[in-house]
């Protein structure tokens, strides 16, 4: 549960509210099953309701990981756009520190906060560590290499060799990012293919439940 709580809070959601909603959903489904049992005098309804409640709980919890992956992708998408602007500033001989200050104007609140932490780190620590710490907010390994390259511009100056290295690493990051986008779209297409299977499974469950009801009615008549 600690991992789930950490994920929920990382998404900016209220853990207590999310758990309360989950409990209410499960209780509501189970209550419908119990009510159906009392009205229709059949124990099959609580069993179905229990299965539905477990499935609903699983879907509710698993959606947090989906939301987290989507958020991480949005952060990386934003960074790619900002680095493209950063490249223009550096090419125009704006120093690294001022370049990061300028791109803050175009950042989301989350990204602005991370860049401000980076700038604060640069003020306090003249090593490469603040740049590595910044790159740890992203899963793409190319970002760490790019940030180290940017640090080297501070350490060695924004010369042509440093800019060339930066351009090469940025091109590598962009290609990696494009590959990720393509893979993401392929996974979406593959997931669409599973929907007919899920629908078929749901129909089978309904048919089995219907057959059980018929058998139960026949037994009661006999």
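-> sequence recovered:
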């Amino acid at each position: 549960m600690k991992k789930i709580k950490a994920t929920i809070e990382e998404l900016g959601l209220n853990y207590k509210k999310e758990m309360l909603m989950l409990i209410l959903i499960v209780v509501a489904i189970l209550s419908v099953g119990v009510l159906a049992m009392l009205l229709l005098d059949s124990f099959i309804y609580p069993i179905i309701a229990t299965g539905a409640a477990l499935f609903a709980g699983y879907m509710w919890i698993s959606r947090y990981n989906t939301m987290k992956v989507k958020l991480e992708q949005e952060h990386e998408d934003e960074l790619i756009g900002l680095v493209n602007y950063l490249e223009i500033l550096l090419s125009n001989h704006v120093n690294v520190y001022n370049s990061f200050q300028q791109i803050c104007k175009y950042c989301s609140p989350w990204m602005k906060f991370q860049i401000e932490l980076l700038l604060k780190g640069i003020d306090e620590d003249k090593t490469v560590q603040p740049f590595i710490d910044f790159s740890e907010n992203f899963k793409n390994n190319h970002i760490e290499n790019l940030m180290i390259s940017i640090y080297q511009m501070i350490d060695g100056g924004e010369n042509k060799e440093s800019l060339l290295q930066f351009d090469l690493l940025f091109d590598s990051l962009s290609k990696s990012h494009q590959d990720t986008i393509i893979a993401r779209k392929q996974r979406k297409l593959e997931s669409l293919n599973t929907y007919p299977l899920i629908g078929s499974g749901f129909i089978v469950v309904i048919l089995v439940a219907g057959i059980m009801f018929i058998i139960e009615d026949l037994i009661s008549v006999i």
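The chain has a mean pLDDT of 80.
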